[in-house]
What we know:
Distance between the termini: 20 Å
Helix content: 25-40%
Shape: elongated
Amino acid sequence: MRRIDFMVGQTDFNTLTAAQFMQQDVVYFTKSVKAQSIAAAITTGNFGSVPIVDSDLKPVGIVSEYDLLKAMRQGKQLNEISAGDIMTKPAITVPVEASSAEIMKVMEDKHLIRVAVVDEDGKLVGMLARRDLMKGYLQSQVPDKVWWM
């Protein structure tokens, strides 16, 4: 759940931070996990990428649908390769206190769909998608309106 889901009253979108946009329940893996397990998680979880973390929960990379498809196109067996073999690195992250403008700039500059959110120690605390920013914008304008109907 995101904090923006609970906003009441109009809010200045520019004052919102990653902590308010991010999804806190994050599926993540370590470098040793087989790519097939990641593909299964992505397809059943209906998200496009997962962060890869070290033993301290610090992001070291990300495995996206693109990374998996690239490995498949190259003839690699997903049950024989690990996240570490195919992940995009280094991990691009934003701090939990990053503003909406800072997040949008990172996403635009790096052409990202999702970005990992880290605390002051660099540990993974959430994931944030472009869609979360758009939803936050809409919620900040008229939070009680149902936008998808």
